[in-house]
Amino acid sequence: MFTTYLDKLNTSMTLYEELELPRNCTIEEIKHQYRHLANIHHPDKGGNTEKFQRIKFAYEVLIDPSRRKLYDETNSTAESLNVGAEAISQLANVFFTVIANIDLHHANLIDTMRYEVNGELTRNELSIAQCNQQIVNLNVAKKKLIHKNPQEENLLLGFLETQLSTRNKDLKNFQHRKETLEHMIVLLKDYQYGFIELAATLTEVSQ
Known about the structure:
Blueprint: H1 5-9, H2 15-18, H3 27-41, H4 49-62, H5 65-74, H6 78-99, H7 109-144, H8 155-188, H9 195-206
């Protein structure tokens, strides 16, 4: 069973702890607590976007009986299992692409793979930041945009809501991509390339 890098980072913070609830909490308690915390941490109210997203994700998992059951039994989620499988598949693509394009006698295969994955992670994090800023801007415009005639259809508001929906979907995809790339980096930590490097590693372990 796979565990994402995100899971490893958050081993001290369970989904229940994100909502500040005990594991035996009821559905009604989850709903009530989510509304309470969302009111505090929502970005529109000056809250931290990342914190709000963690609260929202915890709520979405725990409010669904089947997803909650999976989480209670495995301490993981369907999303993280999918990320693990996807990371393995994409790591294979990077592996064969790098092998086909470097001198394997002189270049370090694993370092090159790490470089490629880290570069993609940096670009993806920039995309997340840009997407978040666009969502903030669209929400500001949505609040301020008023049709002079309330009896007529607000076309511009419709445009805004469509774009907002698109950007939120983009953000979700970027975040999923980030988890996948982070998991790929974790997988690469178990590998060394070259006899000299391997011998040095074994010497350090034996000391």
